[in-house]
Design a protein that fits this description.
The protein is an alpha+beta fold. It contains five helices and eight strands, in the order E-H-E-E-H-E-H-E-H-E-E-H-E. Strands 1, 2, 3, 4, 5, 6, 7 and 8 form an eight-stranded antiparallel beta sheet that branches. Helices cover about 35% and strands about 30% of the residues.
Amino acid sequence: MLALTIMDIKDFMNKLLIGDVFDHFSLVEAAITTFNIFSIDGRLQQDFFDSDTKDSLREKCMEYSIWRDIKPFCFSIIRGKRTPLNFKIILQVPQRQVHKFLAENKIILPDNICSFYLNLQYKNKSLLCTSGVSYSSFLPDRSLEHLWDDYLTGFLTRHGILFQSL
């Protein structure tokens, strides 16, 4: 697991809420505290969709909403003259991109890997990013987590996001 402090919060928030840097991630959940606590469960509600859309979502292995579709709602809650008291946003790499990421790194997909995560937590005027890999069972080898951490720091650097390791 990697823990990073974001140095330029305003720039990061612009990239998160206005730019397209994080658009390809899925939203697992978000909780934003302003004058109320606003919670979003990113899990797609399959019963809402018609059968063609359901089939398409199944085909794409989409379990969660894409950040690009949810960020306008989060932006409308966060924007304004006063910053939120805190927020927590959990982003996940979509399954099709997990397969691509592993193939690019010549790693055979272990049966017990679930996904890669980016956790964002704003509290006390500080923004913390942590990485994570979830498994369905215990795996003593941490090389996949190190690979994800390296990818994530490279991703942030490529997008001009300044950070400091904790």
